[in-house]
């Protein structure tokens, strides 16, 4: 079945045609251009498949590079034109509907693999030619006089027709013969090249062993050597070569000549440098990227004794707002300007700036005195961000939060240093941003512990590591136990028993608070049923009410009402035995949609308590619209009542709140009662119920049953 007019096969062939037109003029093939383009079609197909396959295989690129050498594309210009063609057209014609960024990255890796395969194949061909030349030279010395002419003719054919540069010199370094390829590489005439001594071809980038190996060879101590060497051309440019020098001996085995074979690797070296730069630098800002930064950081941390490092981890404050409001293009221009400013802050020796990704940057300083230089570097960065940045006619104010880590080399790994800097940066951001903070090992340890608890929460619920303690609710009038508040605890395998303030915020942040809250509600209601049965079932003097806390996340969960109804029905507990506590802060400014599930629960008979009342600065008039039946007065109002006499101002405030609550038919519960004097004063003020250490600390459900039993029996 033929492909569609503009199907993948047509686009593939167009790519091969463009490739053939670019490369054919610099090939040594005997094929016509259409025949050559037909040879390129299967190579183009392999590149297309490698570009789009799920698991990237560099072997395909290497094989295509080697195939070019087999197709007689041995001129360095052929590789350069091939890579330019692949870079410009491969993704366009063969990328399909894939992710553009990923396809371009794959194309770059394919180019690198092609260059490596091309170099490998060309090197193998060079070595084969070298062997042929060496064998021809040896045969030329050992043949009988009658075959000398034929042997020299064969040697001359190989010598002149080779694609690599070849030169012969005596042991003093005088150049005797050179081929045309070598003359083209150096851009010199044969006379000019032969007037130079081998020892004159020095270059500052010569490896230390270059001339040691040369001396050993001309003395007859080695047969050959191979290395990478640079040469100066007459125009001042640099020629990079793969150089192989071999020693030629006479019939008696005495050293006589040196034979040099040079492969021009200048274009390949420039390509490798370009690919290395692209692999280690951020495409948007031109700054070193995460990989390059980690190389430098690892080197700094492995420095010798007496060396230190300082690191500034920067995250822009509110950058997401720029992207959301002005678009990602504007955000990119902002990042480029920020990168330029940061680059100007790190110009001293041992300093560098890198972009880790997104709006996160890092600055590194090294040396023996980074305690001072890192603070100065952080200050320069903050000052560099003061001036507004113009983007699309708008002046944008840019601020940042910086975490600073400083210390001696050799004590921490790069991952540990960056983690500490990240933690410190978020500490600066949580403190309001636009500032820098110094790393604190204790704060790091707390953050790491929080992270560990966060990741362990889901499994902890599955493994049954949570349990509930109950704190009695006591009637201030007669001292009887009327119920209890359920307080969840976590029995952590390493940290022991954890109170709610250690893990409830983490559960809210991760969303696990919904299943955890549902579990607490069901367990608490079942416990209320057990208490009721142990007190005599339906003939009991009154149910022991159970108070269960609801988090803001649970309030907005659509299954709250149905979950509560299902739990009450399964356990056989009446709704009036349940009280759900909601913090005042969660209901400040609540709209009707948020209050709707609470109203439905209240209409069923479930009591709703407004917890921590007095801490949220809410409008007291709003109490009329909230479906609450209980106010739980925060302990901050009653702490002064632990001693007698109490603060008159606190007495007036509590008295006013109690009066207001009662006028609205709301009961008042007080938290944190710790002394008898405090309990008595609250009773006089008209508070209804109380809880606190004066009555009992939170404990197992059996203790509450015992307290209630004592009340019931007098």
From TrEMBL:
Residues 225-277 form the PAC domain. Residues 307-441 form the GGDEF domain. Residues 151-221 form the PAS domain. Residues 450-712 form the EAL domain. It comes from the Bacteria. This is EAL domain-containing protein. It comes from Streptomyces hirsutus. The lineage of its organism: Bacteria, Bacillati, Actinomycetota, Actinomycetes, Kitasatosporales.
């Amino acid at each position: 079945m033929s492909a569609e007019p503009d199907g993948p096969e047509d686009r593939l062939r167009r790519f091969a045609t463009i490739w053939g037109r670019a490369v054919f003029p610099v090939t040594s093939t005997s094929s016509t251009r259409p025949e050559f383009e037909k040879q390129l079609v299967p190579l183009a197909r392999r590149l297309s498949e490698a570009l789009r396959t799920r698991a990237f295989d560099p072997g395909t690129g290497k094989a295509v590079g080697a195939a070019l050498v087999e197709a007689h594309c041995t001129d360095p210009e052929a590789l350069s034109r091939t890579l330019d063609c692949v870079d410009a057209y491969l993704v366009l014609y063969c990328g399909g509907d894939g992710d553009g960024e990923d396809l371009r990255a794959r194309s770059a890796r394919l180019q690198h693999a092609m260059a490596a395969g091309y170099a490998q194949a060309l090197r193998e061909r060079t070595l084969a030619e070298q062997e042929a030349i060496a064998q021809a030279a040896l045969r030329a010395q050992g043949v009988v006089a009658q075959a000398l002419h034929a042997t020299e003719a064969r040697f001359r054919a190989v010598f002149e027709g080779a694609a690599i540069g070849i030169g012969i010199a005596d042991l003093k370094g005088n150049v005797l013969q050179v081929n045309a390829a070598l003359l083209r590489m150096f851009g010199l005439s044969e006379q000019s090249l032969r007037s130079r001594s081998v020892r004159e071809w020095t270059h500052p980038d010569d490896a230390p062993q270059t001339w040691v190996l040369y001396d050993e060879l001309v003395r007859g101590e080695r047969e050959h050597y191979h290395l990478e060497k640079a040469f100066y051309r007459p125009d001042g440019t640099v020629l990079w070569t793969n150089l192989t020098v071999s020693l030629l001996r006479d019939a008696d085995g005495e050293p006589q000549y040196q034979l040099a074979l040079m492969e021009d690797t200048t274009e390949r070296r420039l390509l490798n440098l370009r690919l290395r730069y692209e692999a280690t630098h951020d495409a948007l800002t031109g700054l070193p990227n995460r990989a390059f930064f980690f190389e430098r950081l690892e080197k700094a941390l492995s420095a010798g004794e007496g060396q230190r490092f300082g690191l500034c981890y920067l995250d822009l404050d509110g950058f997401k707002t720029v992207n959301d409001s002005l678009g990602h293009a504007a955000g990119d221009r902002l990042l480029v300007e920020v990168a330029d400013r940061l680059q100007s802050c790190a110009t001293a020796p041992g300093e560098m700036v890198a972009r880790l990704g997104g709006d996160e940057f890092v600055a590194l300083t090294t040396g023996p005195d980074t305690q001072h230089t890192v603070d100065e570097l952080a200050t320069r960065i903050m000052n560099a961000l003061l001036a507004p940045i113009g983007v699309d006619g708008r002046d944008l104010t840019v601020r940042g939060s910086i975490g600073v880590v400083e210390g001696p080399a050799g004590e921490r790994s790069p991952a540990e240093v960056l983690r500490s800097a990240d933690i410190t940066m978020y500490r600066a951001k949580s403190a309001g941003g636009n500032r820098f903070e110094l790393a604190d090992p204790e704060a790091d340890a707390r953050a790491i512990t929080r992270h560990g608890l966060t990741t362990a929460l889901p499994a902890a619920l599955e493994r049954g590591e949570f349990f509930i303690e109950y704190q009695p609710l006591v009637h201030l009038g007669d001292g009887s136990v009327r119920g209890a508040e359920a307080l969840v605890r976590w029995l952590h395998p390493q940290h022991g028993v954890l109170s709610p303030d250690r893990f409830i915020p983490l559960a809210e942040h991760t969303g696990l608070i919904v299943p955890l809250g549902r579990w607490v509600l069901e367990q608490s209601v079942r416990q209320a049923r057990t208490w009721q049965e142990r007190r005599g079932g339906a003939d009991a003097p009154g149910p022991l009410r159970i108070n269960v806390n609801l988090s803001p996340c649970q309030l907005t969960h659509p299954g709250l009402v149905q979950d509560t109804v299902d739990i009450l029905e399964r356990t056989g507990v009446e709704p009036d035995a349940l009280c759900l506590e909601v913090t005042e802060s969660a209901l400040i400014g609540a709209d009707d949609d948020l209050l709707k599930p609470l109203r439905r629960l209240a209409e069923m008979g479930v009591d709703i308590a407004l917890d921590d009342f007095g801490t949220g600065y809410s409008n007291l008039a709003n109490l009329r619209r909230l479906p609450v039946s209980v106010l739980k007065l925060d302990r901050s109002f009653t702490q002064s009542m632990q001693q007698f006499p109490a603060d008159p101002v606190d007495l007036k405030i509590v008295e006013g709140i109690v009066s207001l609550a009662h006028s609205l038919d709301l009961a008042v519960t007080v938290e944190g009662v710790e002394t008898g004097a405090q309990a008595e004063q609250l009773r006089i003020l008209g508070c209804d119920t109380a809880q606190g250490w004066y009555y009992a600390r939170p404990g197992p459900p059996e203790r509450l049953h015992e307290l209630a039993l004592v009340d019931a029996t007098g």
